[in-house]
């Protein structure tokens, strides 16, 4: 799985999506689930959990606000974390710092100019 520890790293589309998610989260609680069928993209601002499973040779990733059922199998996202799964397998993640999660300013804010 690719891990891009800063917003400047990673594929341009992922950096753009993480940056936009961070900016939106700066206005209030914002969790995101986005899929096109093969990819699942999830962003956590305040609460989000993931459980990866393999059953009958099929990989899957489940995402929920709170763990469902078997709680010890669920992994909590970090605040400001964006994760990408493809065909049920983790393929990337990036960390952001939305306002309200910590004291760092938003990317593109007047303070950065």
Terminal-residue CA separation: 33 Å
- In round numbers, the mean pLDDT is 80
**What structural class do helix, strand and pairing data support?**
mainly beta
Q: Which homologous superfamily in CATH is the superfamily?
A: Aminohydrolase, N-terminal nucleophile (Ntn) domain
- CATH overall fold name: Glutamine Phosphoribosylpyrophosphate, subunit 1, domain 1
Q: Helix tally?
A: 1
Q: Tell me the helix content.
A: 10-25%
Shape category:
globular
Supply the number of structural domains: 1
Can you name the CATH architecture? Answer: 4-Layer Sandwich
Rg, Cα atoms, Å: 14 Å
Topology, number of strands: 8
> Low-confidence stretches at least 5 residues in length (pLDDT < 50)?
102-113
How is the biggest beta sheet arranged? 5 strands, mixed
CATH level 1 class label: Alpha Beta
**Order of the strands making up the biggest sheet:** 1-8-7-3-2
Quote the beta fraction.
Answer: 35-45%
Write down the secondary-structure element order. EHEEEEEEE
């Amino acid at each position: 799985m690719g891990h891009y520890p800063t917003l400047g790293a990673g594929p341009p589309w992922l950096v753009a999506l993480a940056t936009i998610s961070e900016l939106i989260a700066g206005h209030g609680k914002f969790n995101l689930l986005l899929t096109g069928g093969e990819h699942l993209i999830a962003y956590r601002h305040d609460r989000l959990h993931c459980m990866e499973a393999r059953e009958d040779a099929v990989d899957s990733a489940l995402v929920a606000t709170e763990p469902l059922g078997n709680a010890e199998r669920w992994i909590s996202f970090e605040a400001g974390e964006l994760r990408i799964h493809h065909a049920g397998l983790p393929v990337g993640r990036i960390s952001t710092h939305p306002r309200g999660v910590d004291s760092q300013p938003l990317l593109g804010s007047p303070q950065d100019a």
